[in-house]
Amino acid sequence: MNANTPIQSVIAHRDQDMLIGGQRVPALSGRRFETRNPATGELLANVAHGGAEDIDRAVKIARQALNGPWSRMKPAERQAIMLRLADLVEENWDELAMLDTLDLGAPLSRTRLGKVRAGSLLRYYAGQATLISGETLGNSAPGDVLSHTLKEPIGVVGAINPWNGPIGMSVWKSGPVLATGCTLVMKPAEQTPLSALRFAELCLEAGVPEGVINVVTGMGDAGAALSSHPDVDKIAFTGSTGVGQKIIEAAAPTMKRVTVELGGKSPNIVFADADLDKAVPAAANAVFANAGQICSAGTRLFVQSSIHDEFMERLVEHSRTIRVGDPLDPETQIGPVVSQAQMERILSFIDGAEGEGASPLLGGARKAGEGYDAGYFIEPTIFGNVTDGMTIAREEIFGPVLSAFSFDTIDEVVARANATSFGLGSGVWTRDLATAHSMARGIKAGSVWVNCYQMLDPGVPFGGYKMSGFGRESGPHHIEEYLETKAVWINLD
């Protein structure tokens, strides 16, 4: 499969149904919605428009599967299924990557790179499946009393996924579910539903029992129904802070467990002693990768005053070389943003920044001309003369827009970096070990990348501080989010 592969060979059926209980089924209402290619506006598929009644059907089937043969599988059996799934995902990665490129607009050169991470995640969680264990605990109760703990699957999990990394999120949300013996009802973003459906089919092919992994496609009302459903034991959500707050409210009446990975306004901090040959392209990639549609994007760039002008000049020149275009072209580095609504939102931030007095150093407009007019392309945009109180310095834009600042001292930049309601990611560029450790301790964020940016690994936790959410994904911390701890007391007298 290559960039010239006909879309019809990737999306064989124009009508795409949900996957519930191991079967492709239409919405009970019969309704459908369109998903379109953001690079061309072309119709990709008419997708089942699931609602509350479809969520209820999926949850009931997930509950039945939780109490069925799946609950009696040994850890090694679940592990073997997950290892087969990892192989299948890798074998079918060209198809999965193409689906995400068509649905999201991310360059094929980028979506193809996700193969290693997806396989690694599934194999990591497969390993975790056999490591789940309780503890024998001493106690001071009178008599001869034994106390120990059991670790049990939390139950039926509802996953609500964002649109900015569709297949990656399907894998990330499913891994701990399968490792712990839970079951899943997954609601992918309406903008990018296609790869989640294909992933669920691969789960069945790998031997995951019917009803363990279910995908309900639909709009926000389906996500709301999942969040409030009384028979869902946990919600795992990745997305905007505003929606995350609504999900927490919806989950509160039934006291279900919730983990949320939300928005960010991450600082990327360059000290005068940094290796600029590495820091300049990394600063561009930190914000422009995936057209800026990454929650931990380094959208606030702080550069120490003594090198500020030189750094910004080099950054602007480097960013001019970034190729924006057809996501199926292997030379393309940035594709379109996901939708017209997202494009208009980003452009409104750009217009507002100029109105507040920020100086555009690069870009600042929709990319127009032959090959671009039908899609949602925005030029890589850099603003200087930004103050900390400006809207673009405070709000998550979720587009290819960078705000640049200068600073003088460590204490100053730590205070300014932390002067945000978010706390997801951060970057520090320095050759001084003391500076690196001081910044790592001082920044209030879930990840601090030193002399790198956006590094992720299946064994290392990822998540946010403050309004960027709570809970961690990846690492053993992730598995714990899907387990209940039961205390067992046995009187031996």
Walkthrough of the structure:
With 493 residues, the protein is an alpha/beta fold. The chain folds into two domains: 7-262 and 468-488, Aldehyde Dehydrogenase, Chain A, domain 1, CATH 3.40.605.10; 267-458, Aldehyde Dehydrogenase, Chain A, domain 2. The protein has helices spanning 7-10, 52-66, 75-91, 93-104, 108-111, 114-129, 166-180, 194-206, 220-228, 241-251, 276-288, 305-320, 340-356, 391-394, 410-417, 433-442, 475-480; strands spanning 15-16, 18-20, 23-25, 32-36, 43-48, 136-137, 145-153, 156-160, 183-187, 213-215, 234-238, 257-261, 267-270, 300-304, 359-362, 381-384, 401-407, 427-429, 449-450, 469-470, 483-491. The strands form five sheets. The chain has a seven-stranded mixed sheet, sandwiched between helices. A six-stranded mixed sheet has the order 10-9-8-11-12-20, sandwiched between helices. Helix 2 (52-66) crosses helix 9 and helix 9 packs parallel to helix 10 (241-251). It starts with 6 loop residues before the first helix and ends with a strand.
